[in-house]
């Protein structure tokens, strides 16, 4: 059995990784000796160079932050070897770790993935689950290996997908419940109390990164599919369409009983509607390119759309 203050190195980058790192920093059983995150990047309208959320959290606790451009860099490998982590948890780090890196911790790398593996392996499991209309999803803690999310699983938590969930909503809940799972799995590994179980060969599905082009709304689909698609890419990269020659981002939509042709627009006192292959949907929020989000009906009234204009 291991003792308190087990040396770990944490790898992660975006906001959903923060709850896991916070729990491990507070844990009396773990010593976070370093954090690995993606390099500082330009972001926002001001185009300022900013630290990742995980990097900021580590800085606030005086934890060493490693930001290799590539995890295969010899200097990074040498330093990680000198740190001698016994185990290394990973949450949404954002880069593939080569085998030489995977071999360094005695008890390996434990990855927290936001799906019930082997479903939705890949970069966007939450978006894929919502877009596919799944009723349930969850998070899996598994031993990282060279394949894409193929390693044996230590444990899972489940989460119901609500009818109104955006990807941001669901990911927020999974980040919190997944953090609890990750800490308990690390404790179990340290105690020698759990072993990883190989993933089933059945039920494998893949969730590639959602591109901006893939986030475009197809109005020739059903209202239900359009609604799921919009929620699945909210808040990022954001569902969008063109209305005439204007490109706009669209917030979650609500099916109505109205009938319009796919892409046909109707602006009435009751709302801003766009047709699908079934019933029309009402848009509640809209964001014209380069502007702030606003009420869709207010925007449509101000835009004074021509009767022939359609969403495409």
UniProtKB/TrEMBL annotation:
<dbReference type="GO" id="GO:0004479">
    <property type="term" value="F:methionyl-tRNA formyltransferase activity"/>
</dbReference>
<dbReference type="InterPro" id="IPR011034">
    <property type="entry name" value="Formyl_transferase-like_C_sf"/>
</dbReference>
<comment type="similarity">
    <text>Belongs to the Fmt family.</text>
</comment>
<feature type="domain" description="Formyl transferase N-terminal">
    <location>
        <begin position="7"/>
        <end position="184"/>
    </location>
</feature>
<feature type="binding site">
    <location>
        <begin position="115"/>
        <end position="118"/>
    </location>
    <ligand>
        <name>(6S)-5,6,7,8-tetrahydrofolate</name>
    </ligand>
</feature>
<protein>
    <recommendedName>
        <fullName>Methionyl-tRNA formyltransferase</fullName>
        <ecNumber>2.1.2.9</ecNumber>
    </recommendedName>
</protein>
<keyword id="KW-0648">Protein biosynthesis</keyword>
<feature type="domain" description="Formyl transferase C-terminal">
    <location>
        <begin position="209"/>
        <end position="303"/>
    </location>
</feature>
<dbReference type="InterPro" id="IPR002376">
    <property type="entry name" value="Formyl_transf_N"/>
</dbReference>
<dbReference type="InterPro" id="IPR041711">
    <property type="entry name" value="Met-tRNA-FMT_N"/>
</dbReference>
<dbReference type="Pfam" id="PF00551">
    <property type="entry name" value="Formyl_trans_N"/>
</dbReference>
<dbReference type="Pfam" id="PF02911">
    <property type="entry name" value="Formyl_trans_C"/>
</dbReference>
<dbReference type="InterPro" id="IPR044135">
    <property type="entry name" value="Met-tRNA-FMT_C"/>
</dbReference>
<dbReference type="GO" id="GO:0005829">
    <property type="term" value="C:cytosol"/>
</dbReference>
<dbReference type="InterPro" id="IPR005793">
    <property type="entry name" value="Formyl_trans_C"/>
</dbReference>
<dbReference type="InterPro" id="IPR036477">
    <property type="entry name" value="Formyl_transf_N_sf"/>
</dbReference>
<comment type="function">
    <text>Attaches a formyl group to the free amino group of methionyl-tRNA(fMet). The formyl group appears to play a dual role in the initiator identity of N-formylmethionyl-tRNA by promoting its recognition by IF2 and preventing the misappropriation of this tRNA by the elongation apparatus.</text>
</comment>
<keyword id="KW-0808">Transferase</keyword>
<dbReference type="InterPro" id="IPR005794">
    <property type="entry name" value="Fmt"/>
</dbReference>
